[in-house]
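Q: My labmate handed me this sequence with no annotations at all. I'd like to see what the chain might look like in three dimensions before we decide whether it's worth expressing. Could you predict it?
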Amino acid sequence: MNHIINCLVENKPGVLARIVGLISGRGYNIETLNVAPTADETVSKMTIVVPGDARVIEQVTRQLAKQVDVIEVVNMTNLRHLDRELILVRVGADSHDSRVEVLELASLFKAQVVGVQEDSVTIEMAGNQETVSDFLRLLKPYRIIDISRTGVVAVRREDV
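A: Here is what I predict for the chain of 160 residues:
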């Protein structure tokens, strides 16, 4: 199972490398990683998606919390939250029929066509992890030529 971990860290050189080294040095994989400054320019927010069981995630979060440059660590997985990932995907569409099918699929997923070439279409799509995975799975038969993904970003929702 993938777990979403949000970390607030000091926005200083080397912090990203230390965090990645900490996780990978213990033999754990990072599925996605997104880092950007917050409203406070001295603080960055890291959203890290790590696969593993509860024991793995507990160890990762404890190790992250011990780091000097880490301000806060929150495992978002079991909390009310919103998560999104943005993808740009260039898909082969060298016939009229395949182009129509790709455009219909994009429409079903509320994706935007951002580029059209003679033999391909470039689509922008944002959604939660499951929706993005479903969209990409359905595009595979049309030959994915290129893909860029932002990685997951997540914010906690207020408890109601």
